[in-house]
Amino acid sequence: MRHILRRSRKRVNRRLVRPIPLFYNVAVTAVALPVFGPVESLSAPNPLASETGPRDIRAVRTLRISVTDRCNFRCVYCMPEEKIDWLPRETLLSYEEIAAVVRAAVRHGIGGFKLTGGEPLVRHDLPALVALLRGVPGVRELSMTTNGALLDEYAAPLKAAGLDRLTVSLDTMDPDRFRAITRGADIRRVWAGIRAAVAAGFRHPKINCVAMRGINDDEYAAFARLTIDHDATVRFIEYMPLGRTALGGEYEQRFIAETDIRARIEAALGPLTPADHDAGHGPACVFRLADPRGDGHPGRGRIGFISAMSKPFCSTCNRLRLTAEGQLRSCLFDGGEVELRPILRGEPLRPATHDALGDSNSIADALHAAFIRCVAFKPEVHGYYGNRQMSQIGG
Ligand code: SAM
Ligand code: SF4
């Protein structure tokens, strides 16, 4: 199936790189979501972060793990179309090395782990990594963010291996627009993937939608409408200026803030009302449609906003990131990071890292110390521009 996707992308690429006119005035069909159930999660804000500050390792609740920088899509806001310098395979952390980092995280009380990328499912035998991490004592919640295109093949094996939750990215519900945004992918594969995920027993998948003015800003109400009858969560992510992307040069033109997204939803479906922040929405502010049917009852599902640009949430940030090549990163935007690969492979450390890690007697101790070093890099408020795109860091 991967080959089919790759081939189809190549075939349509050239025709579809006329991005902007294509995005306007496409009729959007609302799609019925499968029924989802409730879920528990670790990724809600940690109250400790407001007491200790985000630079205290005790405030960290989740580690986002990028397993690859590669992807079977080329979303216009995430990647350049070509001339991508993929990481050499030997530089990627092996599954055993990732598990060693996870063990170090668990020693700090971090219990939530999200697999991401690039597209995590293009890495060979991802269920094997899930099974490995599931076996690490102290791993409480294992989740994954995916573009969904390979989920129909992998949903059941992932569930069997012990994955708890899934987030699927979907920026439009229109097939042509989807093909344009992803530079060639077929939205039917994503819907098939979501159906397979529900059939495999994943309850309550979240949908991530990156909001982009002039690209999908006529669809927010349609996305929000999905939450009227389904216990699903749709999260609108403010577009962030990260690295080299096709839309990078027109960032200001494409950016749309939470207030504007929300106004469009409320104009069509009435007011939003705050929802409990108890079910795994990470940095998102979460709402429900207050009375979308006019019967005095709120919508079943939730609507989240991840507004890193208009409302940076750095002071309560509860996460660290592990890149595919083994940098432990403090923030998506700012480059404060610690190189873990030399520690894992017994290679010489940079002098600064060496000094920071002190006299660790083992790889496990050095990794443990590296977490404390990394969290100290967390910024007060992140900078405006991130030098590496999301797919390289692990979104
Ligand atoms: N390939 C998987 C996917 O698309 O879900 C996982 C990796 S992707 C980098 C993780 C999330 O980051 C996706 O929801 C994607 O839409 C989002 N993303 C990527 N680049 C972004 C940007 N510049 N601003 C905001 N969100 C972005
Ligand atoms: Fe790939 Fe996800 Fe980036 Fe799209 S957003 S190019 S699917 S990594």
Question: If you had to describe this structure to a student in words, what would you say it looks like?
Answer:
The protein is α/β, with parallel strands linked by helices. The protein has helices at residues 2-16, 19-23, 47-52, 95-107, 126-134, 151-161, 175-182, 187-199, 220-229, 251-254, 258-269, 341-345, 351-357, 363-375, 390-393; strands at residues 62-66, 112-116, 141-146, 165-169, 206-211, 233-238, 272-274, 285-289, 302-306, 319-322, 327-329, 337-339. Helices cover 34% and strands 14% of the residues. Helix 6 (151-161) links the parallel strand 3 (141-146) and strand 4 (165-169). The protein starts with a helix and ends with a helix. The site of iron/sulfur cluster has 12 residues, from loops. Residues 71, 73-75, 78-79, 117-119, 147, 169, 391 line the site of iron/sulfur cluster (SF4).
Short description:
Helix content is 34%, strand content 14%. The protein contains 15 helices and twelve strands. Mean pLDDT is 83; it is low at 1-50.
- Assembly context of the chains: single chain
What strand line-up does the widest sheet have?
7-8-9-6-5-4-3-2-1-10-11-12
Compute the number of strand runs: 12
Cα distance, first to last residue? 24 Å
Strand content: 5-15%
Rg over C-alpha atoms, rounded to the nearest angstrom: 20 Å
Order of helices and strands: HHHEHEHEHEHHEHEHHEEEEEEHHHH
Q: Quote the average pLDDT.
A: 83
Q: Give the cofactors and ligands.
A: S-adenosylmethionine, iron/sulfur cluster
